[in-house]
Amino acid sequence: MTDLKKMAEQLGLLIEEYSTMSRPLPKEKVRILKNRLESAIERASLPGSTYATQLEQVRKQTASDGWRLEAIHGIAVGLRDDIQAGWTESVVELVHADMHSDYLEMAETLLEAGYKDPAAVITGTTLEVHVRVLCVKYGVGTELPNGTPKKADTMNADLKKAGVYDGLQQKQITAWMDLRNKAAHGDYAEYDKAQVRLFIEGVRAFMVKYPA
What we know:
By secondary structure, the chain is mostly helical. Helix content is 73%, strand content 0%. It contains nine helices and no strands. It is elongated, with a radius of gyration of 20 Å.
């Protein structure tokens, strides 16, 4: 079963919960289910997609939680049905690749202009997003039991355990994330332009070898 199918099942469970809730809807349950549906839609849809755009429009509306829940429920139904029909799966990897390539090109432009530090941060963020999407692709959890998103190092270790890549690749990703963390925390003297260039090239090669 593909990860998109799993997402469709998750959406289906929430949709069913909405359908079977007693009326009038309890306010606290409305709030909780609304938040869960929003999160499910975000996980299952691509940034800039129709579903993501519709969700953002609903969030901007000045309305009750009950109205928002009804609108978000409609978005979830459409997304689930499209996933089940196979209309979203064929373009997922291509869109991810295009998005990541754009960010790495931005990092290269910044590096050539002398801005190695933001280039390192952008490259590291691109890497972390790719690692998270790889987890989704291979059915590796991206959240802790309490619902908190896993850190990149944890997801990296989990992907190695799942056999997605070997220990050498895991260690390389750990080293890359260390460079990103140095850039993000202002330790700019701990690395140089040449290392950032290798960072960008390495992440690009990694994404080609392990597409998500």
